[in-house]
Amino acid sequence: MAGDWIETVAEAQRRAQKRLPPSVYSALLAGAERGVTYNDNMAAFDELGFAPHVAGQPSGRELSTSVMGVPISLPVVISPTGVQAVHPGAEVAVARAAAARGTAMGLSCFASKPVEEVVAANPKTFFQTYWCGTRDRIVQRLERARATGCVGLIVTLDWSFVHARDWGSPFIPSKIDREAVRRYAPEVVRRPRWLAQWARAGGPPGLTAPNMVVAGETPPGFFDAYGEWAQTPPPSWDDLRWLCQEWGGPVMIKGIMRVDDARRAVDIGATAISVSNHGGNNLDTTPASIRALPAVAEAVGRDVEVLLDGGVRRGGDVVKALALGARAVMIGRAYLWGLAANGQAGVENVLDIFSNGIDSALRGLGRKSVDELGPEDVIIPPGFLRRLGD
Ligand SMILES: Cc1cc2nc3c(=O)[nH]c(=O)nc-3n(C[C@H](O)[C@H](O)[C@H](O)COP(=O)(O)O)c2cc1C
Asked: φ and ψ at 272, to 5 degrees?
């Protein structure tokens, strides 16, 4: 319906805020400590400019590309996020929306829906894992994802277990028990549409992590799974080389900001990397990922596919990232706002906002395809770039 159309990601965020209980909204907003990185991820895109043409542009524009061998109809991939119980459709609704718009989906190992349901909704699914538990446990989870048909693996490395936020962390229950109901009741009564949605779906979210186990095992609660991860010593680059070999297919290393780490990712056999700081949820005051992208792309862009995520909110941001060396971007909060606002249709809407915006920016720049974009398409102010590592 025309009235449901959401014009921008900012509007999707406003609608999500109106719809969700404040604690749930705040859990999605996240942003570690003072939120310097969270804010810089978005502010940095605004510092970059365009110099548009007004006539002589090509009449049609090509948005399609591929990531890790998977063809996608626009250079925007769903980044894995672990808290999609904001809407009963959760990861399955997101997967359907991504499939409807011809793009790929990263599925978090902390997702609320089983990988089998997600792959059935979108065969272009990449399974995302952390370095969590013993090697045997990791292999078991990978085998399940591979057997299900996941077409690539995303290994996310940038997490330092920073839980403090200057604006206050919301209460997130480990399960919906009497205490959770008591604490949430004052918020939830002011969000009747959100409550009604869950009532229609048969009850509140389960808050489990079904992809952390293999067939026949009871899924752990989200916090139990998180605890297992917190107790696992960080991986070495040799561990990660082993992981790439175990998977035996395309692997993306997500969370790279430094040139030296990007080179190591190439050395261990990664197919792709995502220049990313976890959307500003990790080590605060890490620079915006777009500031670090050009140095990384210059160093390894011929050896691996370079993606970027963090702060992407409009088609113009995607075009800026591609011009500075990314093959595609991944989006996090943008689609979560769409999901919260309007389920599958809301995510499709957000993907359409990106397609339209990319198309307009290409037209303005006189480019007929995303492959033609280069640094000359973007005005980079002095002092913008950050080269991290050597
Ligand atoms: C609520 C939330 C949950 C997330 N969970 C995961 C996760 O489980 N795995 C992962 O690799 N990244 C996770 N991320 C990071 C995203 O994949 C992505 O890097 C980030 O959201 C990009 O920034 P953006 O939100 O500004 O687009 C999460 C981000 C948010 C906001």
From this structure: -150, 160
Beta-carbon contacts of 74 under 8 Å, excluding residues fewer than 6 positions away, are 63, 64, 101, 102, 103, 351, 354, 355, 358
Give residue 332 CA to ligand 1 midpoint distance, Å.
Answer: 5
Task: Return the closest-CA partner of residue 4 out of 337, 342, 315.
Answer: 342
Structure tokens at 139: 């292999």
| Mean per-residue pLDDT pooled into runs of 10, the chain (390 residues) | 83 97 92 97 98 94 98 98 88 98 98 97 98 97 98 97 91 86 91 94 91 93 95 98 98 98 98 98 98 98 98 99 98 98 97 98 98 98 97
Return the pLDDT at 282: 96
Distance CA 34, CA 167 (A): 8
CA of 26 to the centre of ligand 1 (A): 14
Residue 242 burial (CB count, 10 A): 16
How far from chain centre, in Å, is Cα 385?
Answer: 23
Ligand 1 site residues, Cβ closer than 6 angstroms: 28, 30, 41, 79-83, 108, 110, 128, 156, 254, 276, 278-279, 281, 309-312, 331-334
Residue listed under structure tokens 């359409």: 352
The answer to whether 306 touches 326, Cβ cutoff 8 Å, is: yes
Burial (Cβ within 10 Å: 0-12, 13-18, ≥19) of residue 92: buried
**Residue 163 designated active-site:** no
Q: Where are the beta strands (DSSP E) in 93-151?
A: 105-108, 125-129
Q: How many CA atoms lie within 13 A of 80 on its CB side?
A: 28
The Å distance, Cα 309 to ligand 1 centre, comes to 9
Residues 6+ positions from 299 with CB-CB distance below 8 Å: 259, 262, 263
Neighbours of 90 (CB within 10 A): 22
User: Could you tell me how far CA 247 lies from the centroid of its own chain?
Assistant: 21
Give the whole-angstrom CA distance, residue 212 versus residue 140.
Answer: 9
CB 48 within 8 A of CB 380: yes
Residue 7: partners with Cβ closer than 8 Å, 6 or more residues away: 353
- Name the residue type at position 295: A
Please classify residue 70 by burial: count the beta carbons closer than 10 Å to its beta carbon, then call 0-12 exposed, 13-18 middle and 19+ buried.
middle
